[in-house]
Amino acid sequence: MSRIAIIGTGYVGLTTGAYLSHLGHEVVCADVMPDKVAMLNRGEIPIYEAGLDELVRAGLDGGRLSFVLGAANAVEGAEFVFLCVQTPQGEDGSADLTYIQDAAAEIAPVLEAESVVINKSTVPVGSTRVVERALGRSDVFVVSNPEFLREGSAVHDCLHPDRIVIGSDDSAAAARVAGLFDQLQAPLIVTDPASAETIKYASNAFLATKISFVNAIANVCEAVGADVREVVLGMGYDKRIGFEFLKPGPGWGGSCFPKDSRALVRIAEDAGYDFGLLKGVITVNTEQYERVATKIEQAAGGSLGGVTVAVWGLTFKARTNDLRDSPALEVIGRLRQRGANAIKAYDPTVTGDIDGVEVCADAYAACEGATVLAVLTEWDDFRWLDFDKVKGLMAVPNVVDARNLLDPAALRRRGFFYVGVGR
Ligand code: UDX
Predict the structure, then answer these.
(1) What is the DSSP letter of 2?
(2) How far is CA 232 from CA 22, 418, 420, 421, in A?
(3) Which tens digit of pLDDT belongs to each residue from 162-171?
(4) Which range, of 96-105, 210-219, 330-339, averages the lowest pLDDT?
(5) Residue 370 contacts by C-beta under 8 Å, 6 or more apart in sequence?
(6) How is domain 3-191 classified at the architecture level of CATH?
(7) Domain ranges of the chain
(8) How confident is the model over 276-309, as pLDDT tens digits?
(9) Residue 395 Cα, ligand 1 centroid: separation in angstroms?
(10) Domain 3-191 identical in fold to domain 192-423
């Protein structure tokens, strides 16, 4: 078992630290926020992620996991150091590497000789070299090991990965990193750093492309009178296509796809390639936010002036409390621009203030006096509510179901006007 330091306790860092300790390694995680470190040492988790609290508490109780303030305090004695700090989007769409460079500079003087620094943050191609330069240590290896976890199923994805990708020019260092994940028995791809970094961007861009493709097909279905769910069913049995990531909706969002797709366009541009396809994928996505706002406006009779809209779901997808780049918020922003009088919203994981939105305590309260109910996140709970009660609360029983979550026939039987996506 190995001694591991994790720098950064965001989604990727915290989950990585927790599951590596679960695999039996001795893990010390560092963050720069004292309150967060104290909270984590008490076993309290700042994010909503299935199974993560159990892993963290088991690690703490077993003495294999701890949290400290400051990167330098975590790396003493560590054979492996994972960089899991944020790479926010810079002004020009490129990823901002300041946090990575600062972390590397901080740990450089205290790293053990022969240790391996592993880059898990999503970073532009060439960043392995950037880290090497920031470290300035010829006796330390730098390896790329991109993370593919999804929010909401992060623990499961880490413990059952589809593949493990390691990018390194040094095969011995790559083998040492691969050894950390032996128990997972996942397909292993050992490659050069640039290819490993590109795999991460290409995977996210491809998934975003699938979703934009199906959203575009949904638009075609609406125009020609087809049902996108039937179309996807018919496509998906073709093994080359599959069923995954072909659910139409209000567009993709979250902390990865928007940032990474723009970054890849920028990476390509900097390297002299105009990635028109990916630009189109991003455009289709932005248009999808508009289309959903237009559906809601049309359901309200063509104008949102003076209208109250009820919104179910605010997070960028179900099973997370993450609002970053949420399509729901994109749609709400457009409703406000178009003059909606009030937006009353409910989300199982969201409390507190959101600019221009009245966040309600339950799904029914959001519907009071509303002319349109918009379903923007696919929380399963919404399917099992009392729709007679919902109808009684609304001013007009209009439903725009941007996730195709509800049963149109059942709603129409109850007297609702129902509009979905691509059907
Ligand atoms: C994604 C990748 O899946 C993961 O591998 C990577 O490491 C990080 O980025 P995540 O951002 O957690 O994970 O969310 P994901 O489940 O991929 O969904 C992204 C967005 O696409 C969400 O807004 C979701 O609602 C939307 N989506 C997804 C669809 O609209 N339709 C689909 O069929 C799938």
Answers:
(1) -
(2) 38, 21, 15, 13
(3) 999 999 999 9
(4) 96-105
(5) 308, 309, 310, 344, 393, 394, 395, 396
(6) 3-Layer(aba) Sandwich (3.40)
(7) 3-191, 192-423
(8) 999 999 999 999 999 999 999 999 999 999 999 9
(9) 34
(10) yes
pLDDT for residue 125: 87
Say which CATH architecture domain 192-423 belongs to: 3-Layer(aba) Sandwich (3.40)
Enzyme catalytic residues: 256
The protein residue whose alpha carbon is closest to atom 14 in ligand 1 is 150
DSSP state at residue 71: H
> What's residue 205's pLDDT?
98
Cα dihedral: 295, 299, 303, 308 (round 10): -110
Q: Which atom of ligand 1 is nearest to the CA of 246?
A: 33
Q: Is the pLDDT of residue 94 over 90?
A: no
The two tokens of residue 403 are 């996730």
Give every CB contact of residue 119 below 8 A, 6+ residues apart in sequence. Answer: 83, 100, 127, 128, 131, 142, 143, 144, 145
Q: How far away, in angstroms, is 205 Cα from ligand 1 center? A: 11
> How far is the C-alpha of 215 from the C-alpha of 204, rounded, in Å?
17
Q: Which atom of ligand 1 lies at the shortest distance from residue 249's CA?
A: 30
Q: What whole-number distance in Å separates Cα of residue 327 and Cα of residue 316?
A: 6
